[in-house]
Each structure stands twice: as C-alpha cells, then as structure tokens.
Amino acid sequence: MATKSLQALGHNLADPDNQIAFFDQDETATSFYEKIKTYGFTPLKPDQVEIFQVNMGKMCNQVCAHCHVDAGPDRKEIMTWETMEQCLDVIKSIPSIETVDLTGGAPEMNPNFRPFVEELSKLGKQVIVRCNLTIILANPKYHDLPAFYKKHNCQVVSSLPFYKESRTDSQRGSGVFKKSIKALQMLNEVGYGKPETGLELHLVYNPAGAFLPPPQEQLKQDYKEILAADYGIVFNELFSITNIPISRFLNYLVKSGNYVEYMTKLANAFNPSTVNGLMCRNTLSIGWDGYVYDCDFNQMLDKKINCSGQHLTDLPIDELTSREIYVNQHCYGCTAGAGSSCGGEIT
Amino acid sequence: MSNYYDSKDLAKFGEITTHQKEMGEKFFDWYGEVFKDSALSAKEKSIIALAVSHAVQCPYCIDAYTTDAYEKGFSKEQMMEAVHVAGAIRGGASLVHGVQMMNKAEKISM
Predict the structure, then answer these.
(1) Which band of pLDDT confidence, cut at 50, 70 and 90, is reported for residue A1?
(2) How does pLDDT run across A64-121, given as a tens digit for each residue?
(3) Domains of chain B
(4) For residue A7, is it within any domain?
(5) Which of A209, A218, A264 shows the shortest C-beta gap to B73?
(6) Residue B1 pLDDT greater than 70, yes or no
(7) CATH of the domain at A123
C-alpha cells in the first residue's frame, strides 16, 4: 500500500512530461487520435460549458493506490482564496454553468473550502463535493461536514470501491472501509441518500485493479442490497468509473506487469457512441493554481486548454467552444465499454 | 516446445479459425450467443464459467473468467465458493464411484 505520493518518492512518473513520453513510445494500442479520426470525431470539440470542476488542491488524508492526482498528505499545493475569487468571476460570466464540482485531494482540507461553498451557494449553482468519506472522521473539526453539506444542499459524491472491506482497503488504505461506512451512516443521519429529503448521496465504484468496471445498474443493486442489509446504509446512485492509465495507476499497471493487457482491453473495448457524451465536452477543469484544462486527467498531465489564454485571469470565453480538446492514449479509459465520466457510465 | 502453456496465447484464441474458418467462426458465434443475457444472466454465466474452468483445469479459461468475474462484480469470496463447487463435483464424481466399487466387491465376495 502506498504511503507517499510519486512526487515525494521522486518517481519518474510523477512528472507529466514523462507520462506523455511513455505514451509516445508505447505501441500497445492505435493512437487514440487516429482511432477517433476514423469515426470522424477529429478535431474533438466541446459543447457549451455546463460543469465547472475545481480541483481545490492535491492535499489529501489518503494515499490511494490508483489516484490520478497523485494526492496525499505530503502534497501541499492548494488553491488560494484569490484563485477561488477568480473562479467565482468566471462562473458568473458563463451563464450555461449549472454545476460546480469540487474535487481534490480532499477539497475539505482547503481552509477556504467552506467560504467558497457559501459563495457558490449564493450564486444558485448546484455544488457537488467529491468527499472521500474518511475526511469526516479525520479530525473533530470535520465532524460537522454532513450538516454543512446539508445547509448548502451540496450533492455528495463519494468513492467506495467495493462493498467488501478487503477490496476497498487494498485500494484506499487499511481501515478506510470501516471509516467510510461510519461516515456514510453520519451522512444518512442528516438525511443524505434518503429520497424524501432531496439530499443526494452518490457512491463511486472504481475497480481495485487492472480490470474494467461491471455494468453500473447491476452493480448498484448489489451495493444497495448489501450496504442496507449489513450496515443500514442508503444512497441514491452508483457511478461506475474506469481507472484511467495515468499517474499512480499507470505506475501500478507498469510495476505489476498489467499495462499491456489493460491497455489492450481498453482499446479493444473502444465504443464510438461514448464520444459525444465525454465529460471533456461539457466541463472545464480548474487546477489549484487557476490554470484551465479540458478535464481532470488532462490537468494531471499538465495539458492546458488550447486557447489564447489558459488561466482564469485571461480566459477567452468566446474561444471555449471552438477549441480543440487534447487527447492521448489515456482517453481510451473514458471510451471503453459503456464509457466513463465523473458521473459514471456515458451510454 | 519449451512451454506447453503461454498466457500470451489466450489473445491468439481467434486464430483457431486459421485452418477451419467455417467451423471456427461458427464456434465463436455460438460462444458469443451462449454468454449473452438470456434465461440466465451474463453475470450468472460468468461464475458458472469460472467454476467449469477449474473443473476442466484450463489455465486460459481461469485467467479469462477470473477477470470476467471481477468485471461482473463478484467478490473473491464468491469466486472461491464457485471453485469449491467445482471441486465438490469433481471430488463427488470420484467418491460416488465408491458405490460401484462396493457393488462389485459385494458381488465377488462370498
């Protein structure tokens, strides 16, 4: 189990340029660009922005084995209040934005997390918090997070890689399953996951290893039955997400000898009907330092949006829908099978 | 032959059509049909396939259906139980012949 980020370990794959170089020399699969070109999807262009996803920092209380952010307690990069104010300015200037999706790291560890949510709430935007659950129990100052989320009607989206302790802990760390169950019970206590309250609690499944996720609907029924029977937990939807072969998960694939088989599987499962629904087509992803990307994965590969300005302070809003989205081999992860996005399956 | 089994050969399964295209293609069409959702779900068929893979001791099938069972949402505990089912049937198949042994022994005994 990882205890430090790749960056803290001085690992070669901590550097986005080395990940891109890895893709450049890899011949396992046809180039993703060429693949989508054969279906007429190039240049890949976005629709209007509906989701403004903010990565509030790489600091996290967990060191998950698959984390594409390479987040962890040793990462100190977090968004400043000044950058949050720049986010608010941009959100106000793009009326099509309906949802602000807060991620990290653990976004709650940013000292300005709560004031930022309060400001977003005043704007009338739907706020999604990607909560890793264990943060709620990590320190007494976080114990009231469920009540805070409720106050601002935040949608809570939380990873629970499996309904069994061993598979969850193998990915997210020893003891994470039990703490996650406790945190889910705390969220249920304030009304989350109960249909009559309107407080939405969604779980995220992602495979704990080099395999693709099961069909979302079937898995949701298994989760609902087992979590209710064993722990009395209720939730709304289950999002089934494919692991993207970058950063820590790429390192795992290479180290465990699974890279070729996994990449071949992703490429063979390419589904052209997922392309129009890719999250990069309706999302803007903001880095902790205010730079703008097509998606959280491109952000971690440090591939900024293809526009004349790439930062919140000089973002050319009129260019956004005409820009070309950056693609590379990692994109096979979002187009495999039923597709994968931050909201689960695409098709 | 330096090795009788090579995990890379699993990806070459489709090549069995090389010298008998028509029969090979019919096999793969039938195989695909067998594993679709029908009276049994694709998920149920996956765990049956995993158990049978162990009963017939096919290393390619074990690799393929271990991954498939994970991708259908089965836990390790469920998968190991399926292996026990295969083992129980194999063991039972031997032991039930003990009746034949006893019958024969009885017949030839005074």
Answers:
(1) low
(2) 988 999 999 999 999 999 999 999 999 999 999 999 999 999 999 999 999 999 999 9
(3) 39-110 (1.20.1290.10)
(4) no
(5) A218
(6) no
(7) 3.20.20
CB atoms within 10 A of CB A314: 10
The domain total for chain A is: 1
Please state, for a pLDDT cut of 70, what percent of chain A lies above it. Answer: 99
Give B73→chain A minimum CA distance, Å.
Answer: 5
Q: CA-based diameter of chain B, in Å? A: 60
A340 in any annotated domain: no
- The answer to whether residue A5 sits within a structural domain is no
Q: What is the mean pLDDT of chain A?
A: 95
Say yes or no for a CB contact (<8 Å) between A219 and B73.
Answer: yes
- Quote the minimal CA–CA distance from B38 to chain A in Å: 15
Whole-model pTM: value is 0.89
In single-letter form, the type of residue at position A80 comes to T
The bridge status of strand A292-293 relative to strand A283-286 is antiparallel
Q: Which domain holds residue A242?
A: 12-335
Cα A11 to Cα A65, A70, A252, B110: the distances in Å are 14, 11, 12, 79
Q: Give tens-digit pLDDT for A262-295.
A: 999 999 999 999 999 999 999 999 999 999 999 9
How far, in Å, CA of A339 to CA of A60, rounded? 27
Judge: A214–B11 Cβ closer than 8 Å, yes or no.
Answer: no
- State both tokens at A269: 């499962």
Cβ-defined contact of B43 to A162 (cutoff 8 Å) = no
ipTM of this complex prediction, to 2 decimal places: 0.75
Tokens of A169: 């802990």
